[in-house]
Amino acid sequence: MLKSFYQNKLLEAGCDEAGRGCLAGPVFAAAVILPKDFRHPLLNDSKQVIEKNRNILRTLIEENALAFAVAQIDNIEIDTINILKASFKAMHIALDRLKTQPQFLIIDGNRFASYKKIPHRCIVKGDARFTSIAAASILAKTYRDEWMCKLHKEFPQYGWYGNKGYGTLAHRKAIEQHGQCKYHRKTFKIKSLQTALF
After folding, report:
1. Which of 67, 92, 107, 174 is the most buried (most CB within 10 A)?
2. At residue 178, does pLDDT exceed 60?
3. Could you tell me the CATH number of the domain that includes residue 73?
């Protein structure tokens, strides 16, 4: 059972990202402020929810959230500032876009760059513990998946419609065959097929 909030005195937003470990495409982040009574049996860490249910949840979250926002940092900037800083920056931009400013932040993971002196708490596996972080994970994941499906139409040889830019065997094989394209993260080390197979 997900908890509604970490603390109950300050208006709380949950933040999460999607695509941090991908070989291609942007990293997305979302920030969500939910009503304290928001519940849904399907809501969980986006990695534990099937695609059909993620899309159902996205609509419900957007319809019921007190505020939500999504942001992205592209692969070029990821290569420039590194993926960790890019993830934090995407979260900050999402927080900037909220129509209501939160008073407390809960962040999925173990590290975060402070935002506007608003107190925060990093929570490992927070997307499986708190509703607002789970909701942020759903939004970040669905928005990013949608984006990668658009990029797939431009470069179908990498199979992004299915792998969404993650380093699957098929994706790495396609990179070995076709090389990298303009959406690949050039600073990311790609494990060779030999390493993957043996």
Report:
1. 107
2. yes
3. 3.30.420.10
Report which secondary-structure segment, H or E, holds 105. Answer: strand 104-108
Give the model confidence (pLDDT) of 13-29 as tens digits: 999 999 999 999 999 99
Domain residue limits at 104? 12-197
Position 25 in a domain? yes
Alpha-carbon distance 182 to 168, whole Å? Answer: 19
Instruction: Count Cβ atoms within 10 A of the Cβ of residue 85 and give its class: 0-12 exposed, 13-18 middle, 19 or more buried.
Output: middle
Quick one: tokens of 57? 């949840």
Q: What is the pLDDT of residues 94-119, one digit of tens each?
A: 999 999 999 999 999 999 999 999 99
Region of 189 (left: φ > 0; alpha: ψ -120 to 50; beta: rest) is: beta
The pair of structure tokens assigned to 174 is 């396609």
- pLDDT at residue 193 tops 80: no
Nearest to 15 by CA among 96, 95, 118, 97: 95
* CA-angle at 141, arms to 137 and 142, nearest 5°: 120
